[in-house]
Every structure is written in structure tokens, then in C-alpha cells.
Amino acid sequence: MIACQFNKFEIAKYLLESGIDINDKTIYEANALILAAHSKNIELIKYLVSNGVDVYQTTTYGHNALFASVMVQSLDLVQYFVEKGIDINCKCYNNMRPIDLARTVFKNKEIYEYLKKKDDELNEKEKSTNSKNSNKYSFRSFINKIFLE
């Protein structure tokens, strides 16, 4: 919905209330949310999300709303979409992640540091989960060894 890209909130709202498909896509598979991210209008974005827009939609290039938020260099939007559950390690057609885009293309230190912190948190959580699972396996092996030998 092109109205979202050009920050025409009232027109977008009217179109949605008139029955237009909120998840209709452009020829490049961008939905209203990805287009709205380019407008940086958080109220429009929240309106779309509350009305059921697909938060996880990706374009034919692999870009999603998180990528669009990095491209327009909006930390508020980046934080919002991370909170909505968009994978920070998603990759687009050229194998770049949002953090790579923030660091190398846009050189946006604030967004880079935020995404780096989130990435570190995810890695720490994974280590913790893997450590617990390996301990369970070790304990299971120990019990099997005692009782089966």
C-alpha cells in the first residue's frame, strides 16, 4: 500500500477500513509494514501491526521491516521490530544481516551497538541452553553407564 510509504496515515486507514488486504504486496513482495517503515511513522506502524499485518514478510531481496528500519536509520523502529520478534540475524539476498548493514553501509553506531547487544544476548542464551543440554546428556550417559554395565 503506497500510502504507507509516503506517510499518508489517514489514506492508509481509510483503505484498510474499506477492506483492502493489509497484507497485499508490491511486485517486490513488500507489504504495507515494510513500506511504512520507510516513513518512520511509528503510529502508522503500530496501527498496521494491531490490524494484523504480517510482521515477518520479506521482499524478493530478503528485506523485512527490520532491514527497512536500519536503512532509514531509525533506532526506535529497530527496537520496536526486535521486540516484535523479527530475527536480528536474518539475512538478505547478499548474505548481509541488519547489523552488517548498520555497521558497514550506514555506519550507524547507535543501531549497530543496539543490535550487537541483542546478538550477544542471544549468543549467551544459546550457550546457556547448549551447556544445560550437554550436562543432561552427560548425566544421562553417567546413569546409563552405571546401570547398564
Description:
The protein has one domain: Ankyrin repeat-containing domain (Serine Threonine Protein Phosphatase 5, Tetratricopeptide repeat, Alpha Horseshoe), CATH 1.25.40.20. The protein has 149 residues and is mainly alpha-helical. 62% of the residues lie in helices and 0% in strands. The mean pLDDT is 90. Pfam families: Ank_2.
Number of helices: 8
Instruction: Classify the helix fraction into a percent range.
Output: 55-70%
Taken in chain order, the helices and strands follow as HHHHHHHH
Number of domains: 1
Q: How many DSSP E strands?
A: 0
Instruction: Evaluate the radius of gyration.
Output: 20 Å
CATH class category label = Mainly Alpha
Unreliable residue stretches: none
Overall residue-averaged pLDDT value: 90
Beta-strand proportion: under 5%
Topology:
Blueprint: H1 2-5, H2 9-17, H3 32-37, H4 42-50, H5 65-71, H6 75-83, H7 98-105, H8 109-148
Helix pairs in contact: 5-6, 5-7, 7-8
Protein name: Ankyrin
Pfam families: Ank_2
Tags for this model:
mainly alpha; Serine Threonine Protein Phosphatase 5, Tetratricopeptide repeat; 149 residues; globular
Sum this structure up briefly.
The protein is mainly alpha-helical. It has one domain: Serine Threonine Protein Phosphatase 5, Tetratricopeptide repeat (Alpha Horseshoe), CATH 1.25.40. Helix content is 62%, strand content 0%.
